[in-house]
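Ops channel
N.P.: pipeline sanity check, posting one input/output pair.
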């Protein structure tokens, strides 16, 4: 979505008020969760829906 909007991660982080490092962690999937207000801010800034950003992957540790 960033590429489609011709926006850098740094610019998005500044616009939504989070650290660039935290946005990087979100992008890489290295977090266990995301706050709804953060997701809302990202979607508002990128003019998209949460489903455009998120993908469900079953956890290999779960049985």
């Amino acid at each position: 979505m960033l590429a489609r909007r011709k926006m850098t991660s740094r610019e998005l982080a500044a616009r939504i008020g989070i650290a660039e490092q935290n946005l990087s962690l979100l992008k890489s999937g290295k977090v266990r969760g995301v706050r709804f207000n953060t997701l809302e801010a990202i979607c508002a800034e990128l003019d998209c829906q949460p489903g455009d950003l998120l993908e469900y992957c079953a956890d290999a540790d779960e049985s």
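N.P.: looks fine end to end. The chain has four helices and no strands.
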